[in-house]
Amino acid sequence: MISNQWYAILPSKKVKTDKIVGVKRMNLDLAIFRNSKGEIGCVVDQCTHRGAALSLGKVKDDCIQCPFHGLEFNKIGKCMFIPANGKASTGDISRYNVKHYPVREENGIIYLWYGDEEKITDDLPFFDKEIDDSFVFSELEDHWNSHYSRCIENQLDVVHLPFVHQSTIGRGNKTLVNGPKVVWEDGILTTSANNELDQGQKPKSPEECVIKDTHLSFRFPNIWMNHISENIKVIIYFAPVDDENTVLYIRFYCKLTSLRPINSLIAYIGKFANKTVERQDKRVVITQKPKASSLRSGEKLVPGDGPIIKYRKIREELINSTVK
């Protein structure tokens, strides 16, 4: 994992007011809840008293209440009340505090800060310059038995298109990979497919290629966009579960018409197109070994893997920059 980053981990709609959701993210068992004010809290899903799962409890007085002995913790994990000690108790109960993780919400996504709290930034990774409130979207969720780095790399892979997606987005047998051009600028990794039919010609170098209107963008640590057109885009955020599992949240954004209900219908239909393509990818990616990618994985890469190589280099630099 890359430390000191905001990770997109869950859709906001998953956590209802006065409800608790138990999830595993970044190898951590977490209890996420929303109080009566609409505020999100995230704590380790284990009571400090006797080790029970807090996610099985309930929200009471804007706190998460343990289902075992009723201890109450606020949104930052501070123990507020121990019923067995009585309401009149004035003793210090700070030793019962449970570890919490900072969380924020934006664009209907819950982000979790993974790293040192004193290094928290206000930059929640998204594509704000590309997507605004004029868009509507539909969302698809799927679980992959793959490390999140493999899932991300698959969305930067232009070489696989005519083979994995022969019946969908890879039609045309365009197996010759020109470039591709890769740009790393302002914290965004951008590339585009420049594939063509192989008629014996020499592939173009990355320098001879351009970033097309239809292109792919990625923001660390885990959110990707397919810019299909100015009015249609696909976003995926790859929520890391553990070293071998990832949940993909796939959004189809649309503003093709001036009528939001029509755009919503198009986005809904687009969700099923996304599902078809995604399942084609999943079938292959879950078989990759080793589960996690790295610069020294032993793979014999080709020039067309340029975006993947760049992703791995940046990811390694970010990981190393936070190692104490």
UniProtKB/TrEMBL annotation:
Residues 6-112 form the Rieske domain. The keyword Iron-sulfur applies. The keyword Iron applies. It holds the Pfam family VanA_C. GO terms for molecular function: 2 iron, 2 sulfur cluster binding; metal ion binding; monooxygenase activity; oxidoreductase activity, acting on paired donors, with incorporation or reduction of molecular oxygen. Keywords: 2Fe-2S, Iron, Iron-sulfur, Metal-binding, Oxidoreductase. CDD domains: Rieske_RO_Alpha_N. It comes from the Bacteria. PANTHER family: BLR4922 PROTEIN (PTHR21266:SF59), IRON-SULFUR DOMAIN CONTAINING PROTEIN (PTHR21266). This is Rieske (2Fe-2S) domain protein. It comes from Alkaliphilus oremlandii (strain OhILAs) (Clostridium oremlandii (strain OhILAs)). The lineage of its organism: Bacteria, Bacillati, Bacillota, Clostridia, Peptostreptococcales.
